[in-house]
Design a protein that fits this description.
The complex is a heterodimer of chains A (about 240) and B (about 450). With about 240 residues, chain A is mostly beta strands. In chain A, about 10% of the residues lie in helices and about 20% in strands. In chain A, strands 1-2-3-4-5-6-7-8-9-11-10 form an 11-stranded mixed beta sheet, covered by helices on one side. Chain A is elongated, with a radius of gyration of 19 Å. Chain B is an alpha/beta fold and about 450 residues long. In chain B, about 30% of the residues lie in helices and about 15% in strands. An 8-stranded parallel beta sheet of chain B has the order 5-15-14-12-11-8-7-6. In chain B, strands 1-13 form a two-stranded antiparallel ribbon. In chain B, helix 2 packs across helix 14, helix 6 crosses helix 7 and helix 9 runs parallel beside helix 15. The chains are: A mainly beta (about 240), B alpha/beta (about 450). Chains A and B meet through helix 1 of A and helix 4 and helix 6 of B.
Chain lengths: ~240, ~450
């Protein structure tokens, strides 16, 4: 639960130099953590211990720093990430890396729903499974999921790439714009205006690059590509039953 | 009034329908007939902007009880009546301090031209109040000319950028609009120019669908966590508003407070929009007048009235409307449609061009078409260049000053040294409906219809 009490002013007790700084959330607050990383300079690195599923961990990072969270994170971990990297050695809650702009976020476990929602750029890697609405309204982010994803993923996805090494749930890519989806396993169903498309050489190359960036060894040729049929880009009364 | 009909092909023109003794159906009046004919011809519903046109109980149905014997007025041109308001001092370390409680509602770049957005910023800044972004994000012109800029955090998250979030003076989480509570939006392809498309990450020229709900949270418990995230990103400096379309304002206001909002914005059904279905505009939501007492009741019961500020919008036109909204318990108001009119929207000097579009000055509402002769609701470079942002900004500033002075005039007559000292006791209603909705007595009586039953 988020406290709604205005926080006390925080002054980091030990500003990290070039070395590793450790924030123990059993002792420090989320506010203290975020203020410290907002005050951080490029090149610094941080380890967060005892996260305990707390919300809003390492949000709004705007410096080229590395943050490692040892344990499970709650909602909106690494939200609006702009630079550097965040590694979560555990599971992540709703809205992981929502609206990420650049940099990368890596979760070794599973992510809940709406992972990388509305992300504009950067790379989000989830080694485990992701819940419903993964990549919803994505606007340029790249997402690589090692396991399965839930229903309505990539709903109204505008740009970017979603790679799923497992299976996809119902209504994949519903009302998709120009985002591209690659799925290795099965797709329960495709959403409105989402169709399977040929996997050409440029797509194999793109996919290989994304898989490599995510540290995976899957064979790109085992995937299928999905994208927009572009039939619903303009409202037309004859398509009214498609919505 | 002489009503001239459109003659059938080959028929002699009829100059005056009233001479025929015809009686128009109240159910199937000419506007309704035209709607049916248009639907039958096209097979699609009508989309337009500019908010509800039907008459509903509104501020016109309330009157102020100026002072005489039992109340003591202030001198109109001598004694001070303050107008400033502080918004968002519940948790944020940098609340907004505005010189007038009349703010500019969110309207997007995309729906509006860049010149129009700049003009809104110029006008608002000149009188010390705030303007608000919209779907499409923050433009440099708007930020540059806006002393106080509220950044809308919308379901679509078009143009959402943490850099802009940190540049904002306040963040407004939009859950709904008064014109269409629960509805998304559709910006037609002709307004998706290269710049608009770039800001929204969309292909040029396609129809843009705006989501009706946020993608990464659902209910109030999630919203509380989302607000926590926004506070963390902005280091608890920036006030967080929550904007709701008026439908269940008592419950929605209470939940917004519970979620941690610094400011609650309630937009009544008379609120404008850039484009949505006419049937939606006219039939979903409740009037602004009915929404305010419900929202105020929720704030009072939670013990946060005047601590969590209430901004009311939806059909504000005059200083009397401002004063009435504040007397009912609002801390500030927001204007949208009226601000566009002040800039020059529906200007009679473009009468011929409105006519060519099948409309008329004072009636033009096809904002989605992007062919606005006034250069306000368009992305056409030639049309938008017609609006001089400096001149239009000055017009808006003038209008905002008039609204403020009018409200002050009424407040002084009621003996108030600050607009916030206006209270429901200063008001009576002209109709039973307005009395019941506003929870003030019917004029000349002590009767408040539904009193004791209208609460929650």
């Amino acid at each position: 639960m988020v406290t709604l009490t205005a926080p006390e002013t925080f002054a980091p007790t030990a500003a990290p130099d070039a070395g590793q700084a450790v924030v123990d959330l059993a002792i420090s607050s989320v506010r203290e953590l975020n203020q410290a990383i907002h005050d951080a300079e490029d090149g610094q690195s941080w380890t967060v211990t005892n996260p305990g599923g707390k919300h809003s961990l390492a949000v709004g990072i705007d410096a080229d720093i590395a943050v490692a969270i040892d344990g499970h994170a709650g909602y909106y971990a690494a939200g609006m990430h702009q630079k550097g990297s965040v590694a979560i050695n555990g599971n992540a809650g709703v809205g992981l890396a929502e609206n990420i702009m650049s940099g990368n976020v890596h979760v070794t476990g599973d992510a809940s729903q709406s992972a990388a929602a509305t992300g504009h750029g950067g790379l989000v890697v989830i080694d485990g499974n992701a819940g419903a609405r993964c990549g919803i309204s994505m606007k340029g982010v790249d997402i690589v999921v090692g396991g399965n994803i839930g229903h309505m993923s990539a709903f109204m996805a505008q740009a970017g790439r979603l790679v799923v090494c497992g299976d996809a749930g119902d209504a994949l890519g519903d009302s998709i714009y120009e985002a591209r989806i690659y799925v290795k396993g099965t797709v329960a169903s495709l959403g409105a205006d989402c169709v399977e498309k040929p996997l050409r050489e440029e797509h194999l190359a793109e996919l290989a690059e994304l898989l490599a960036a995510a540290g995976r060894t899957d064979n790109p040729a085992d995937f299928k590509r999905y994208g927009s049929a572009r039939n619903l880009y303009h409202f037309h009364v004859d398509n009214s039953t498609a919505y | 009034m002489t009503i001239t009909s459109v003659p059938a092909a080959g028929a002699a023109p009829i100059q005056d329908i009233s001479e025929l003794g015809l009686r128009e159906s109240a159910t199937f009046d000419r506007a309704t007939i035209a709607d049916i004919q248009r639907a039958a011809a096209t097979g699609v519903y009508d989309i337009r902007g500019w908010g509800a046109k039907r008459k509903v109980p509104h501020f016109d149905d309330l009157l102020f009880l100026g002072a005489s014997m039992s109340r003591y007025p202030l001198e109109g041109y001598r004694e001070k009546c303050d107008t400033d308001v502080v918004l968002g001092d519940r948790y944020a370390s940098r609340p907004l301090h505005l010189q007038t409680p009349v703010t500019i509602a969110g309207m997007s770049f995309g729906a509006l031209s860049a010149n129009a957005k700049e003009a809104l910023g110029r006008g608002a800044s000149e009188v010390g109040t705030s303007t608000t972004t919209g779907d499409g994000g923050m433009t440099p012109e708007e930020r540059g000319q806006s002393r106080h800029l509220v950044y809308q955090y919308l379901p679509s998250r078009y143009g959402m950028n943490p850099d802009d979030l940190r540049k904002a003076d306040a963040i407004e989480i939009v859950l709904g609009q008064g014109a269409k509570p629960g509805g998304g939006g559709m910006l037609l392809g002709q307004k998706i120019t290269e710049r608009v498309a770039g800001m929204r990450t969309l292909p040029v020229g396609i129809d843009q669908r705006s989501a009706s709900r946020h993608p990464d949270w659902t209910g109030p418990d999630d919203l509380e966590i989302k607000i926590g995230e926004l506070r963390e990103i902005t280091d608890w400096k920036t006030p967080i508003y929550v904007k709701i379309g008026a439908s269940r304002p008592y419950y929605d206001t209470a939940l917004a407070v519970k979620s941690g909002a610094d400011v609650v914005v309630v937009d009544g059904m008379q609120g404008g929009t850039a484009a949505t279905q006419q049937v939606f505009i006219e039939n979903v939501g409740i009037p602004t007048l009915a929404a305010i007492p419900q929202a105020v009741q929720a704030l009072q019961e939670l013990g946060v009235h005047r601590k969590v500020q209430l901004i009311v919008s939806g059909g504000i036109r005059t200083g009397a409307d401002v004063a009435k909204a504040m007397a009912l318990g609002a801390d500030a108001v927001a204007i949208g449609t009226a601000a566009l009119i002040a800039l020059g929207d529906n200007d009679p000097r473009y009468a011929a061009e409105y006519s060519a579009l099948g409309s008329a000055a004072g009636f033009y509402d096809d904002f989605q078409d992007g062919r606005d002769p006034a250069g306000i609701t368009t992305q056409d470079p030639e049309l938008s260049s017609r609006l001089d942002p400096v001149v239009a900004g000055k017009r808006l500033a003038n209008y905002l000053r008039v609204l403020t002075m009018e409200a002050q005039t009424i407040a002084r007559a009621c003996g108030k040294s600050h607009l916030h000292n206006l209270e429901p006791e200063d008001l009576v209603a002209l109709t039973i409906e307005a009395a019941a909705m506003a929870r003030v007595p019917l004029a000349g009586t002590s009767w408040i219809p539904g009193a004791g039953q209208g609460g929650f």
